[in-house]
Design a protein that fits this description.
This protein is of the alpha+beta class. It has one domain (2-147): NADH Oxidase (3-Layer(aba) Sandwich). The chain has 5 helices and 5 strands; from the N terminus they run ααβαβαβαββ. It has helices spanning 2-6, 20-31, 50-57, 88-105, 119-128; strands at 42-47, 71-78, 109-114, 135-137, 139-144. Strands 1, 2, 3, 4 and 5 form a 5-stranded antiparallel sheet that branches.
């Protein structure tokens, strides 16, 4: 999958909305992720309202650039009814990566801003979202058409591979 080797963290976006068909595709990719005991703990807030995006950008010291993105996706996880609750954040990590890879495949740029497990950031995002009952904010993902282009770093390090034969 070429998107794995092209995906970069994009922090500058064109002033152009993301088409709803593309938003649906990235969400479908997110929900195609594997999850512990197939619990599928995810729910997603899709934010295109500029005022709400600005509010979300203030929820983390690392999210200031989000204010200029045309789209923010907020992956959340359910707190109740899970068969493997200790794995909910791992499940959301996989779903978020799927979302970002599909976005790259569609010519979109993304950047993942960690929210969980930092309680004050999670609470701040939950407040912006209207305190969704039974849900916890996991991350912020900016999304849009990149206004910057650069190659992905080659992170392969053979010294980190340990063969047991």
């Amino acid at each position: 999958m070429d998107a794995i080797f092209r995906r970069i963290s994009v922090r500058k976006y064109e002033d152009r909305p993301v088409e709803e068909e593309k938003i649906e595709r990235i969400l479908r990719a997110a929900m195609a992720a594997p999850s512990a005991r197939n619990q599928q703990p995810w729910e997603f807030f899709v934010v295109t309202d500029k005022a709400k995006i600005r509010e979300l950008s203030a929820c983390s010291p690392y999210a200031a650039f989000l204010k200029d993105a045309p789209l923010a996706v907020v992956p959340c996880f359910r707190k109740e009814g899970l068969t493997a609750p200790a794995y909910a954040e791992i499940d959301l990590s996989i779903a978020t990566e799927n979302l970002m890879l599909e976005a790259a495949d569609l010519g979109l740029g993304t950047c993942w801003m960690g929210i969980a497990p930092v309680r004050e950031r999670m609470d701040a995002v939950n407040r912006v979202l209207g305190e969704p009952e039974g849900l916890e904010a996991f991350a912020l993902v900016s999304c849009g058409y990149p206004a910057e282009e650069r190659p992905q770093q080659d992170r392969y390090e053979e010294s980190r591979i340990h063969w047991i034969r």
